[in-house]
Amino acid sequence: MTAAIEPAPALTRESVLAALEEVPDPEIPNVSVVELGMIGEIEVESGDPGIRVELLPTFVGCPAIEVIRDAIAHRLEAFGRPVSVDVSFATPWSSDRISPAGREKLRRSGFAPPAWVASGRALPMLDLPPAGSSAGSALDLDAPVPCPFCGSERTSLQSAFGPTLCRMVWHCAECRQPFEAFKPV
Amino acid sequence: MTGPATGPATVRPTTIDPEAVARAVAPLGAATRRALGDLVLSMADDEFVSGFTDSEWTGIAPVLEEDVAMSSISQDELGHARGLYELLAAILDDGRDADAIAYDRSPAQYRHAALLDHARGTWADTIARRFLYELADEARLGSIGDGFAPLSDLVGKLRREERYHRMHAVAWLRRLAEGGTEARRRLEAALAALEPDAASVFTPLAGEAELLEAGILTRPLAAAEAAWRADLTTILVPLGLDLQPQQAEARVTAPARFGVGRMSHGKAFDWLHSQFTMVRATDPQAIW
Distance (Å, rounded) from C-alpha B82 to C-alpha B15? Predict the structure, then answer.
């Protein structure tokens, strides 16, 4: 209906990316799928499909993949061209892909951004405690995760698993708040 | 969709592009294709059965953090199984979708390793099983080469996630081993009970030679098993724990294409199967 009144917007890689900036993550709606680094290659062609977008899931078992895929396809319908959204692991999503703006929005939403890990196929730099030391946190993360509420680095990991696959639970000794952090992966 | 209303709903794959998989399968010979299907089936069934078994802890784990952790790990494993079943459906291209492969087989047709064919048991049983499996899974994932890109791409992503499962299992193994007399007694009993099945993840596949030839595997499963044994020793010996897993049964009984370690299942799996097929049996058209 809108398309009958307004002409379809100019179709370029940049205009597609700008449109995708408006597609929120369903579990953290303040952050877009672009800011979370979930968009891979974007191809704009004269043939069919006109627009091909590569979607890089944060986790293989993420239950929101279908919702995100459909939301992207729905948003790009405005271009009036066939759209193909292809899930891909050829470039494995890493938490390092989250943009600086995305990291800041996560923090302001109460989620500590993830510590940096090596990009590419390398595994997160997470070390096991030395044998025999079962005291304290079972996991030892390289970089301290600052509290998203007060900024203190007097924080400790409570659990490497949280309410969604991509989050874990920390505690701040300064402001005595539990908080969630994005999993470095 | 047209067709009989009583038939199961066909679900569009979430994690793969069937056409891209078809292009990657095309150059493979029939024997390699069959061996690839067997490998992916064994990996998928392992993750699927492990995920369903451990999801039984949701709500009743020893502490709140472990309720969350076991639910999250199980969700990961079931998600990995979904990715592998979707890949398998595209490789086999026999009209079955991932759900049909996951849910429409009789218990005897599943090919998960004997290690995972145990009831949930106590917390110590779960930690012992998860510890042995996570280390084995890591050795297996580390044996997947670039010969079939849709699999190696997926495995590259899985390895990043499985790292957290390994840390969880190893941390709890240490906690139980050093957590006092009763915890240690239970852990030792659990490890002893699993000893005969511990190496079954490396049960040979009839098509291993084809997989090595195609670069889909970079080393035989027996070599992955040797790496796993070395990894186990590094963790168990400092804790004073002794485990002597029996060698994975080398015999592949014709006409089965899997060794015996993936061929026989017990009553615990019959029960689990009745649970995880319940929704599908009640309403085949349910999408969930």
Answer: 8
Under an 8 A CB cutoff, do B160 and A90 touch?
Answer: no
Strand locations in A67-159, DSSP E? 83-87, 111-112, 126-127, 140-141, 155-159
Cα Rg of chain B (Å, integer): 19
Q: Is A59 on the interface with B (CB under 8 A)?
A: yes
Whether B229 shows a pLDDT value over 60: the answer reads yes
The distance between the two most distant Cα atoms of chain A, rounded to a whole number of Å, is 70
- Inter-chain CB proximity B174 and A93 less than 8 Å: no
Helix/strand/coil for B77: helix
Q: Do A165 and B75 touch (CB under 8 A)?
A: yes
Check A90 against B149: CB less than 8 A apart.
yes
Whole-prediction pTM: 0.91
Question: Given a cut of 50, is residue B57 above it in pLDDT?
Answer: yes
All residues of chain A having their beta carbon less than 8 Å from the beta carbon of residue B161 are: 59-61, 165, 185
Q: Does B178 touch chain A (CB under 8 A)?
A: yes
Residue reference for tokens 């240490």:
B174
Contact A106, A113 (CB under 8 A): yes
How much is the pLDDT for A123? Answer: 42
